[in-house]
Amino acid sequence: MEYAVSRDGTTLVTLHEGTDTTACDEATNQLSDTLSALADDGAIADWSIDDADVYEHPAAPFDPYTVSVAFSATVVVDAPDRESAEARGETAIAEALAAAGVDAVEYTSGAAASTAG
């Protein structure tokens, strides 16, 4: 049976920008591009960006911002039951994000499976 498995998380994006707002916007854009590419490649089925906040301000004039970006990712897996689907989905999401170079991921929820379709 096919299940859609979703998981929420946050990741840190480090970049040089002029203000808190532009740093959050650019971090959101960068993660959106990455998640969109993963969806285009079929590694994930769906995604969303939920929020972005400055995690660490620059300590000096030429230091970067570190922005925390909250996201949700969904994959579709074939599994005999919901528990197996959640385990497979967790792995698939983690592997897709790692392969795309999304670092410093902290999951804020466990995997949640529902029947796909």
Please tell me about this protein's structure.
This protein is of the alpha+beta class. 34% of the residues lie in helices and 38% in strands. It contains two helices and five strands; from the N terminus they run βαββαββ. It has helices at residues 20-41, 82-99; strands at 2-15, 46-56, 65-78, 106-107, 112-115. Strands 1, 2, 3, 4 and 5 form a five-stranded antiparallel beta sheet that branches. A hairpin with an 8-residue loop joins strand 2 (46-56) and strand 3 (65-78). It is elongated, with a radius of gyration of 16 Å. The termini are close together. The mean pLDDT is 96.
Q: What distinguishing features does this structure have?
A:
117 residues; alpha+beta; 34% helix; elongated
Which percent range describes the beta-strand content?
35-45%
Total number of β-strand segments?
Answer: 5
Biggest pleated-sheet summary:
5 strands, antiparallel
- Based on secondary structure, the structural category is alpha+beta
What average pLDDT do the residues reach? 96
**Helix tally?**
2
Rounded to an integer in angstroms, the radius of gyration calculated over CA atoms is: 16 Å
Q: What overall form do the CA principal axes indicate? A: elongated
- Element order: H for helix, E for strand: EHEEHEE
Low-pLDDT residue spans:
none
Separation, N- and C-terminal Cα atoms: 10 Å
Q: State the helicity in percent bands.
A: 25-40%
